[in-house]
Amino acid sequence: MREIPFMVRNKHFTAIQQVASLKSAYKFNNSHWILRHHGFTWYFDITPTPISDTYKLKIVYNETFYPLVYVVSPNPLALAKGATKLPHTYDSKKQHLCLFSPHYGEWNSTMLIANTIVHWAIEWLYYYENWVYTGKWLGGGHGNWDADYTIRDNQHSD
């Protein structure tokens, strides 16, 4: 008798499957959904730690693209002393978070947003709050996102 191998999931999750997974995993208050034929926009409030501020996030997803995550409020987000823009974002003014690199295939539609993107956004907020306080970005990623204290603190007028 031939052995049947375990089935490996390599199919893409549809937008409706992503929504069902998110609604099952997260029961946030003040959550708002805009559903489209092949995508959705989800607004929700999150508090990363018991001593954190509360943030309103927006996840925009279309099946033909990867999820986009924005901090809707507060807007603007506070900056670390000496910083001129938010760390590790695609667009600092739009508060569009950089949670993964699409170029390296770190996220694809065979993954559930509930198991990846939401967790990564919460983690980004955690590191953001530490960055505001310390000026050091410890959240990883590419580039140096540390705020430069030396230029601002060592300037003096004659």
From TrEMBL:
<dbReference type="Pfam" id="PF26395">
    <property type="entry name" value="E2-CBASS"/>
</dbReference>
<dbReference type="InterPro" id="IPR058588">
    <property type="entry name" value="E2-CBASS"/>
</dbReference>
<feature type="domain" description="Type II CBASS E2 protein">
    <location>
        <begin position="19"/>
        <end position="142"/>
    </location>
</feature>
<protein>
    <recommendedName>
        <fullName>Type II CBASS E2 protein domain-containing protein</fullName>
    </recommendedName>
</protein>
